[in-house]
Design a protein that fits this description.
The chain has about 350 residues and is an alpha/beta fold. It contains 14 helices and eight strands. The chain is globular and about 60 Å long.
């Protein structure tokens, strides 16, 4: 059965509801942007520090080697950081917004002793290629990037890990390219079909920024204002930031600012959300066949726990681990807890083949 099939009337009503919600939160976002401008003043609002080179902390060899990879399917190039030997099994990490490869620093350091760890900067981020159109950021296209990375690095399959919107990309990769995903780890991100079908009014309020991002120009100004204060606020504020502030420094935040301050990076990062709403993916094959570990920080300000519960029905073999006190940024907020859950999952024996019947 096609679990995504819906009556045409429901599609129309959903589209109209999306337009109305986008308009309302677009107006709200514009109002907040004007308030920022009035509070900061013109000079501070438009202040942006030039960052032509990555911060020294980002180039520390302890995290691995920085390289570029030209993808065979699209011709774009992705920046990635890797550590480990090519003959080791690979863990591939996919970051969320407004992050980059560096959000996986704790996991890369921990697992590099036993695995080849690779963290990409998705298209649109940092020095990776930045295709100009919204359609270039459809989930299927982003999943194709991940598939190319796996194959071009010489692997038949890998352990795939995603967080936030990188989690949506990882879910989609596991659906479209099941042969490439041996195990799947998702952090604080619902299955794409669960996100579509379980979008309650309460969740719409949590996700208001996604609707605001559907508008043009103003969201870019909002994110870039006062030298990307949006990024610092997201990680620092009590309502949105890490619970354990010792795990995020101003130097760490500056790496994320560097990533989004590259030419056209802010617009491209926002195009992820625009494509998510404008192009409805065909998820008729929504079930995930790979074993799944879904980690969920219970203090997530973006996604409610209902999404975690709803995501389970699209997985044939899933373990849901709720982390009490964890924020949306659990891979950075509680790295020891996250790494231990991941390690236990990785070390699980493969499921036994069913006994043949005679």
């Amino acid at each position: 059965m096609d679990i995504t099939a819906t009556p045409i009337s429901l599609v129309v009503y959903s589209f109209l509801g999306l337009l109305c919600t986008t308009f309302l939160y677009g107006v709200y976002g514009i109002f907040l942007t004007i308030l920022k401008f009035l509070r900061y003043g013109r000079n501070r609002f438009f202040t942006q520090i030039s960052r032509p080179e990555p911060p020294v902390k980002a180039t520390d060899r302890i995290y691995g080697k920085h390289e570029m990879l030209k993808l065979k399917s699209s011709g774009i190039s992705l920046h990635y950081v890797s550590k480990g030997l090519p003959n080791q099994h690979m863990i591939l990490f996919v970051h969320g917004f407004p992050e980059c490869w560096y959000s996986w620093r704790s996991q890369m350091k921990y697992f590099s002793k036993d695995y080849r760890v690779v963290a990409i900067d998705q298209r649109g981020y940092g020095v990776s290629s930045k295709p100009p159109f919204v359609q270039d950021y459809r989930l299927e296209t982003l999943a194709g990037d991940v598939a190319d990375v796996i194959e071009q690095l010489g692997y038949e399959s890998c352990i795939l890990v995603g967080h936030d919107i990188g989690g949506l990309v990882a879910w989609t990769t596991a659906m479209l390219y099941p042969h490439l995903v041996e195990k799947l780890v998702i952090m604080n991100c619902p299955h794409p079909v669960a996100f579509r079908q379980e979008l309650t009014f309460s969740q719409i309020q949590r996700s208001w920024y996604m609707f605001f991002f559907q508008t043009t120009i103003v969201p870019e100004l909002y994110v870039e204002a006062d030298d990307y204060a949006y990024i610092k606020d997201g990680f620092r504020k009590k309502t949105t930031g890490l619970v354990n502030q010792d795990y995020i420094t101003d130097g760490d935040i500056d790496i994320y600012k560097y990533t989004l301050s590259q030419p056209d990076a802010t617009k491209c990062a926002l195009n992820f959300f625009r494509a998510l709403f404008r192009y409805q993916s065909d998820f008729s094959r929504a079930e995930i066949v790979a074993p799944v570990l879904l980690l969920w920080g219970c203090n997530d300000h973006k996604f409610g726990e209902d999404f975690a519960e709803a995501s389970q029905k699209y997985c044939g073999d899933i373990r849901l681990k709720k982390i009490a006190g964890g924020s949306h940024w659990i891979n950075q907020d509680m790295p020891d807890v996250v790494n231990k859950h991941m390690e236990l999952f990785f070390n699980e024996p493969p499921p036994a083949d069913p006994t043949p019947e005679y």
